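Whiteboard transcription, Tuesday session. T.W. wrote the structure tokens on the left side:
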């Protein structure tokens, strides 16, 4: 079974908290089998199930992004392609792992968007 991988640039994404909320909510859209937001590169990656209308999902994803941060501009990245979901391996990090490799950041950083 083949799936479509779509990538979008999230210009103006202001914080990791918004990125996490966007990732969570887009992952709940029917037809999206995987969603990830890389805050550092400001990239949204979605794996779309075969037979799903891409334009409809893109509009839903755009609405979710704007709900969490109305200043973000969503632009399609040209690196979208078919993938074989049987060979896709996704590593998951635990919060303990991330704590070990992440620098210490104060909890009181201001965020203008959330």
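and on the right, the sequence the group agreed on:
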């Amino acid at each position: 079974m083949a799936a479509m991988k779509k990538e979008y640039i999230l210009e103006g994404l202001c914080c990791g908290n918004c990125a996490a909320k966007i990732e969570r909510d887009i992952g709940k859209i029917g037809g999206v089998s995987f969603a990830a937001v890389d805050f550092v590169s400001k990239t949204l990656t979605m794996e779309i199930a075969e037979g799903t209308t891409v334009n409809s999902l893109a509009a839903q994803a755009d609405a979710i992004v704007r709900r969490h941060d109305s200043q973000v501009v969503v632009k399609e990245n040209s690196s979208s392609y078919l993938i074989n979901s049987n060979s896709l391996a996704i590593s998951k990090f635990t919060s303990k792992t991330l704590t070990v490799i992440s620098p210490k950041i104060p909890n009181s950083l201001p965020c203008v968007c959330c």
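Someone added at the bottom: Residues 85-105 have pLDDT under 50 and may be disordered.
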